Amino acid sequence: MTIFGEEEIGFKELIDEIKETTLKQKNILTEIKRLYGIKHLENEKIVSQQIRELTIELKKLNERIPKILDSFVTPRILSQSILGESKLLTKKEENFDELEKETIKRLKKEARIIKKEEDFKKVVKEDSYAKFANKLFSRYSKKLVEKDSFKALQVDLEKSNLMYLFPTYISIILFTTLLAAAAGLIFFIFFTFFSIQPSLPVIKLVEDIGSRALKLIWILIAFPIAGFIISYVYPSLDRRAYEAQIDAELPFATINMAAISNSLINPVKIFEIIISSGEFPNVKKEFTKLMNHINVHGYSVVNALTITAYSSPSKKMSELLGGLATTINSGGDLTKFFETRAETLLFDYKLKREKETKTAETFMDLYISIVIAAPMIFMLLLMIMKISGLGISLPTSTITLMMVGGVAMLNIFFLIFLHLKKTD
After folding, report:
1. End-to-end distance of the chain based on CA atoms, in angstroms?
2. pLDDT tens, 286-329?
3. Which end of the chain is more exposed for a tag (fewer CB within 10 A), N or C?
């Protein structure tokens, strides 16, 4: 057995070095993807230069991995253990000494970790919708990006939680509009030849097709316009939702940062601790961007804080990072700064929660009045009109269908409205 001593130490160093290299590659790829999204803003030349520098660094790291592997010959028994093969030893385990048994346990643990990572990679699937949209409209989307036709959309997309490059999302908008137009054409053809009625048969053939087609021509226009508007507005809605999630976590994250800063450690370590804690997932994403600016780009702490504050979707996060950059630059007291900001953010958080509680009570009263009481009164009125023969006399099935459809539409309206209020 030769799985101890210098060979075992060398193998551990090999694994650590490969992990470190791949982590750097991952950070560089994440930053390149983000830079491509802002390439067509004001400082295009600077961003392009940064992309070229990162690409060169990535190539160097890619060339480094084969050299690392060539510098160390892995013993056969180690490679078999990591791959998880069943027959990896030539003698029974009870004949091993304590050091060998401990080494085998560690290798089995590493094999399980590798298997979990492989299973995780299998679960992660690529966005086939975006991929197909790119195949169809990538040329047109690049032309639109070059013409700066969607500047406002680009800002919303960069500040949202959507992981799309700007040209890719333009392709998605065009593809969604095309699908909406196809759906509109299908509906137009169907309702031109058929009509839906509350009584049996539910679907009935239309006699006057010409006049019916003229009445429904608006479907061919409304569907693609609706598809375009929805896909265009979605990044702004996602940005507002992401902003609300950050604002909900920020007061408590700031309290933790104030407590950590009492130990007088480097400000960068404060962000690393918040990221590693995993308690604030949305704040973690913004702090990860900040750490990428420092570790990958090599910016100073003040410059990285300023850039992250500019790109953050949350105004409160921007104010916090901007104020922190000023405090560090002027040599101020970080603990006092974090404590003051934590008090302000927590006070705003409580006020917002009280406002949301009162708003929820108001909507509850409106819901009871409009969705529960009003349909019952309206249905009772229609039944009285039917029995007495006054006004419009509708069949019972028609009245039932009207009530069910009306209540369903009102519920959908309230759900959409509450969702929009939640993202404010």
Report:
1. 65
2. 999 899 988 888 888 899 999 998 888 999 999 999 999 999 88
3. C
